[in-house]
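Worked example 3. Consider a protein that binds S-adenosyl-L-homocysteine.
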Amino acid sequence: MNRVHIKTYGCQMNERDSESVAAGLRARGYAVVDSEADADIVLLNTCSVRDQAEQKAIGKAWELGREDARRAKPRRMLGILGCMAQNRGADLLDRLPDLDLIVGTQKIHRVPDFLDALIAQNRALGPKPATLIDLDAEAGSQNAIRDHGPDRKISAFVSVMQGCDMKCAYCIVPKTRGAERARPMGDIVREVESLAASGTREVTLLGQIVNRYGAREFPVVDGKSPFVQLLERIHAIPGIARIRYTSPHPVAFRDDLAAAHRDLEKLCPQINLPLQAGSDRVLRAMNRAYTVDGYRRIVRKLREARPDLWISSDIIVGFPGETDEDFGQTRAMFEEVGFDMAYVFKYSVRSGTPAEPEGDPVPESVKEERNRVLLELLEKQSLRRHRELVGTDQEILVEGRARKGEGMLEGRTPGGRKTHFAGPERLVGELVRVRITGATVTALSGEVVVAE
Ligand code: SAH
Ligand code: SF4
Ligand code: F3S
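Given these inputs, the predicted complex is written out as structure tokens:
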């Protein structure tokens, strides 16, 4: 009764939480298995950011229950963790009455304890234990997401903070993740040092507004924000070759971060800077406290600091009140900045958010069309930028074997573009020069350049 499968929905912070839970489970003697079919316990680490994300996890939980009934096998234990657990709590039992476990975002590190307790109760052969529910806030929970598994990870996520204090009108994250709380810098540095010692070459620092890291807790020193101080300390760690971070917020963007992109060579020329909308009127309605022009200025500064910067964004189409003219401005901005990558989302009403009372007045067909227009632009823009790399040599950090193709390896350019090429396994974890010979919308291909 100790094989656990964790399925993760949502953002990179959730992925990182799942890794940390898996490490905690292994330390307690559980086996973490890749397939739900092999598992005695299935945990769904869920997302609430859009209705679709919630529906997917609920559908999965429902299907698992039905499958167990059909096969008449002893029921797997099933737990819902993370943002949807926090958002819906015990209401989940209306649709999923057989859930064993519902654990909110600040208690996720307690999952091994909860499973131990449930298993002990099951062994007692009494009636099926009641659903264990814990959605409480816990002081210091941001410090609990720090353990990694025993396997070498060439590229690792590191959560540097939890929560968000903004009130973006559409967003449920402040409700699911709680107030903004930073981890101490020394703890993060130690985590990255120990990752480096186990062979990690690249770290991606994670936070809801990662460039606000420690803004409340730690002082500005020599004109440098706590986030830039943290970047500098990680930059000094031997073995770490590349640093990325996601996602920064335009309102917290200062010149010291642009300067860091110029001065810190390990800081990759890549940024995901959410724009959300290209119309000042919509930005105001969204409660995003910057203007399109302010955003433009940040992009200009970043490009001055790193002319080879790759820039991506998050965009929402169909926010209440978004007119054709507003959308036209978003589209124009999309082309002007020339995003190389973007995550385009159709607006989804979330309960308890400031925009909820406005409902969902933009018709689905209009959202669909706006979504299509941006994705079409994106394909053009990514392909154009990828093609510019054909014929150049790029430094690739080799992350592992490619999923497809005998003898193929996979890695990323400094700008974060996935690249495939043939090579021996021993190159994994190395920085190699690759001549780019092919480009698609989503990836590059090439050949290792052999030094003469
Ligand atoms: N903290 C990050 C975003 C986290 S949520 C930031 O502020 O940049 C990831 C993305 O989901 C957001 O950037 C937004 O584009 C999208 N999103 C959030 N709420 C949404 C909603 N209600 N409907 C559609 N997309 C949404
Ligand atoms: Fe949500 Fe806004 Fe916070 Fe990002 S900054 S998590 S969009 S409330
Ligand atoms: Fe989703 Fe929670 Fe991340 S709502 S986007 S999993 S913070």
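Take a moment to read the result before moving on. The pocket of iron/sulfur cluster (ligand 2) is lined by residues 164, 166, 168, 171, 173-174, 208-209, 249 (CB under 6 Å). The domain at 393-448 is CATH 2.40.50 (OB fold (Dihydrolipoamide Acetyltransferase, E2P)).
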